[in-house]
Amino acid sequence: MKTLRLTSTDRTVLLDSHFFARLPRPTAEAILEGAIVSTHEEHDIVFRQDDPIDHVFFVLSGLVRLYRLGKDGREADIAVLPKGEIFGANAMFLEHRATANAQAAEALIVARFESGKLRQLAAENTDVAQALIELLCRHGKMTEDCLAEDRLLTAPQRVASYILSHCPDGLSSFSFRLPFQKNVLAGKLGLAPEALSRAFSTLRQSGVTVKGRMIEIRDRQALERF
Amino acid sequence: MKTLRLTSTDRTVLLDSHFFARLPRPTAEAILEGAIVSTHEEHDIVFRQDDPIDHVFFVLSGLVRLYRLGKDGREADIAVLPKGEIFGANAMFLEHRATANAQAAEALIVARFESGKLRQLAAENTDVAQALIELLCRHGKMTEDCLAEDRLLTAPQRVASYILSHCPDGLSSFSFRLPFQKNVLAGKLGLAPEALSRAFSTLRQSGVTVKGRMIEIRDRQALERF
DNA sequence: GACGCGAATTGACCCCGATCAAATAACTTT
DNA sequence: AAAGTTATTTGATCGGGGTCAATTCGCGTC
Questions:
Q1: Chain B CB contacts of A99 below 8 Å
Q2: Could you tell me the pLDDT band of residue B5, with boundaries at 50, 70 and 90?
Q3: CA atoms of A8 and A32, how far apart (whole Å)
Q4: Does residue A65 belong to the interface with chain B, where contact is any CB pair within 8 Å?
Q5: CB neighbours of B113 closer than 8 A, spacing ≥ 6?
Q6: Could you tell me the distance in Å between the CA of residue B45 and the C1' of nucleotide D4?
Q7: Are B141 and A94 in contact (CB under 8 A)?
Q8: CB contact under 8 A, B148 and A74
Q9: CA angle B66-B70-B71, nearest 5°?
Q10: Which of A122, A184, B49, B180 could cross-link with A180 by S-S, CB 3.0 to 4.6 Å?
């Protein structure tokens, strides 16, 4: 892990992100003050569950995986966060302990902000508080979605749902490139890699073609029906 | 469903709750102004997924079940909330649409507050915003816990974990009464009722006795090991 | 273009938990 | 207390997905 300072493209990523974009520019700038940037190799651990953490993290590039460990060492993904997402914010209001492990799922650059300062700001500035509230709602809903999908859908259905979430409305056929290794996708969907693989081949009969990371859909309706 | 006004015991439940207790009394009182109370029979639907809702709900007594519906009509519980809990708050910041169905899991009394007013208050008053943030963090963590347990634990392990969460630290043997029907517990744990039943009988060999709603533990360590 | 290594697929097997059906238990009502 | 519901348990069966082992594929390197 190496630590650096914010570059100007970093600032762009930050200011364009879901969270900072809804803040008045000066407020956003104030938060950026004192940000620390660090790089991590794939598989590096950023923090561990129950670690005391006094920072909030922002993905500048790459991918983080948040997961919990079972007694037997098995891992369960809670979330997979791409560029522009924030993590570690819950901890700020929850005893300052991480609720999960955070690991680089690929080469990763993160910015971190002192949570004390951010919390202070949130207490003084309702814009910041609003932004935090919206962030937490959004993340909460994502976790809920995940839980509901786990309980309601089979593996092929979850994969279909994932693919459809990448299909712009109206198109009946399209293709896209997976934003990460199948490995990671499997974890995100709560599946073993083998199960993901089998799910893809089940979906072949519904017009899904997989070649490397490229996914191609021939018939959107068929997928929705699945 | 019948609608009423707040009784004085209702006020007590509200003011003692996790959310309101951390607010200055006058602020809390201000929110209570204009609360509407309604009663619901077991199985009544309070609101449906995707309904536009402009209220935040508070459980005065009884139990609500939040769940999503699958295409095939199957139900997946997202949360089961007892007296003192708030629900429908996410919607306030998420297009004003409910993210799940809310159903009375037993005779239920709820108070509702206009979300517009609450949101306004949160924007003006950082105490309210802080309380909301903490609420959302707490709920977020609960959902995360649920997701992780689903992915990491078998049915008997989930039940053991549930029982242990009711065991005060230090005691090695103790007993308690389930706060709701096994039916509901099964849903909360993401199990079919039959699976819950079987899980209980598996745990018998680890010193768990079940008689009606009474649960008795002989050996805490044995349960933790499970 | 050949090589090498980690990622992904495929096959075989097994276990957990869902589902259906039937029996029993626990409540309500009268 | 008897009858009628509604929950819960138990048994039997089945399917989804996890795990292990063996290939095969894809991609970066030389």
A1: 141, 144
A2: confident
A3: 12
A4: no
A5: B31, B32, B34, B35, B55, B56, B58
A6: 26
A7: yes
A8: no
A9: 145
A10: A184
Dist CA A10 CA A111 (whole Å): 9
Q: pLDDT class for A118, splitting at 50, 70, 90?
A: very high
Mutate to test the interface with A, among B147, B150, B154, B223 (most CBs of A within 10 A): B147
Task: Specify whether the backbone of B62 is left (phi greater than 0), alpha (psi in -120 to 50) or beta.
Answer: left
Domains in chain A with CATH codes? 2-142 (2.60.120.10), 155-225 (1.10.10.10)
Q: Which two tokens stand for residue A129?
A: 């508080």
Gap between the terminal Cα atoms of chain A: 44
Q: How far, in Å, CA of B65 to CA of B76, rounded?
A: 10
The nucleotide whose C1' lies nearest the CA of A200 is C9
Question: How many angstroms separate the CA of B49 from the C1' of D8?
Answer: 30
The structure tokens 């006094």 sit at A54
Report CB contact under 8 Å: B137, A94. yes
Total residues found in chain B within this entry = 226
Could you tell me which of B168, B194, B100 has the C-alpha nearest to residue B139? B100
∠ CA B188-B193-B195, nearest 5°, is: 100
pLDDT tens column, A90-107: 988 888 899 999 999 999
Please state at what angle helix B126-152 crosses helix A126-152, rounded to 10 degrees: 20
B147 chain-A contacts, CB cut-off 8 A? 76, 78, 143, 146-147, 150
**Would you give the end-to-end CA distance of chain B in angstroms?**
44
* Separation between the CA of A199 and the C1’ of C18 (whole angstroms): 20
Give nearest nucleotide to A189 (CA–C1').
D17
Instruction: Grade residue A2 by pLDDT with cuts at 50, 70 and 90.
Output: low
Q: Do the chains contact at B129 and A129, CB–CB below 8 Å? A: yes
Residue A75 token pair = 């891992």
- Closest to A130 measured CA to CA, from B53, B30, B126, B143: B126
CB contact under 8 A, B68 and A152: yes
pLDDT, position B163: 95
